[in-house]
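Inputs:
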Amino acid sequence: MEGAAVRAVQQIVDGLATGSIYGALALALVLAHRATGVVNFAQGQMAVVSTFVAWSLTRGGLGVIVAVAGAIAFSLVFGAAVERLVMRRFERETPLIAVVATVGLLLLLNGLSSLIWGYDLKAFPPVFSGGTLRAGGAAVSVTALGTFLVLVAVVLVLYVLMMRTRLGLALRAVADNPDSSALSGLPVGNLLMVGWGLAAGLGAIAGCLVAPKLYLDPNMLAGVLVYALAAAVLGGFDSPLGAVVAAWIIGVSENLAATYIDLIGNDLRISVPLLLTVLVLLLRPQGLFGRREVVRV
Amino acid sequence: MNHPRRRLRLAALAAGIVVLAILPLNSTAYTNYQIALVATYAVAILGLNLVSGYAGQISLGQSAFFGLGGYCAAIATARAGWPLPASFLLACVLPAAVGLLVAIPAVRLRGHGLAIFTLALPLIGVALAKRFNGLTGGTEGRVAQIARAPAWTGLDTDQWTYYVVLAIAGALFLLARNMVTGRLGRALATIRENEVVAVSMGISARRYKGLAFSLAAGYGGAAGWLYVYTIGFVSPVEMEFLLSINLLAMMIVGGMGSVLGSLLGGVLYVYVPIVAGTVDPVRTTLLYGAILLLVLFTAPGGIARALRRTGDRLGDSRAGRGPGPPGPGAAPRAEPAASPLPRT
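Outputs:
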């Protein structure tokens, strides 16, 4: 019995760690969505590019932490550039066209990263040391704990940025009502670029955290994107906290389902977030943390 | 539509059919299979167009239905020994049913709920195909050489395949054209333009979106059957996510909300990699993405609408009226959104 309990605890901790990776990408999706109202299907592919940049930096002899920091800095610029050069053109179009543009971006970046870095699997150096911590019989890997703590730190930083700084206030104003913000003298275009830059930076964190586990290749994040989208939908798509909590719920339930339900097993675990989302949305169409939308004619 | 234009169109259509009927007798087997594949992918894109172009809902899961239809074809014929027509029916009905099942919760989501939902389908499809490898052949896929020319025709297999695939695709195109110019098309256009107006007119937005998605899935399944009929093989690769977004990209490039655009999309999907002189999937993906963004930047309506607009301009200047307003070319549907609609 003792062993079973320990095993369950470990599954939950591992689930929280993978959930944290989904959460980082889900946060990126939510940030980009709040900025421009677009579900960015290229978010995962942009994160892959960032991760490749980090990989190249480590190959250039930099330590992994420095390389990840470099990749995040690159992503801030990269995300802003994508918003300015590609998405800006489609912001006044129907949402459908804007979403399709992100799909085009996905294809383009997928092809480009294959062209530049090739599509053989690359080992990415681990961000955390490989040790384990023991507490009451359960062994928690440093990687799992570190991943979890990174996301908690990211959420705190984002919270302070959004709620305690003038930049955050401006970002929230633009997300809420771009036209009124422009009339109040806010540089709306620049703020949208900041929003997409931050989103790409978060994507870089997600990519670098998951790369040591999955190996790096251009399609690395296709699966993670599904989980992140499910988390964003489950959390209500406009709520950063909701996205993170939903990502943890998905990570843990996926791990438990894969371990304890034979029918699902390891190869069908990807169906868990979908089933979970269906279940929740049938009961609460606005998501766990979303506000109910009222349509005005 | 004015009469001379209509006559011109019918004449072009008739000439096209004659050319397509004679073509396989004088061309290589390779060309015949290529054209059969164009028709196959055009059907898949047409289905996608029903849900995305006409109903305005992005679907990223078309490859799942394509693959499902393919597996229906391969398993029903090569394993269960069903006759071909029965397997075709199964390849249409089963994906349509699955599509409906998925659509029921998905249409409740606001915004791009369906897109997010459908994104998961190819991944789940691939996982299922690998899991039930006794049935599907796992990663290696399943061989099903089901195309065989009857002796009385005196045709080679490639020629017979060409005729069968093109005939079925033609019938499916005609069916879709009639659907989108009728009540379904008007209802979907209203939902796409303004859902609140649609609902207040008694059009159930959820029901019609679900119907469009189910139809799209059925078309995807039919295309999967045509694929197996042409290639004689199906594997999890035919379900992969990348196929979904490539099809979506070529649908947009061909023309959203256009039957002709779906055909162009099929042509592009098959011939872009060939014309580029490479079958390297990496370059192909890059090229699809670049073409899609280029078209979105320069002609968001896709090639079909750009062609039609050019045609309108030519027709107008020939009639001495000068370049007309962009109206008829810009409007993707025949009726304005506020036209009286039948109650559902």
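Remarks. Residues 2-36 of chain A form the longest helix (35 residues). The CA atoms of residues 73 and 201 of chain A lie 7 Å apart.
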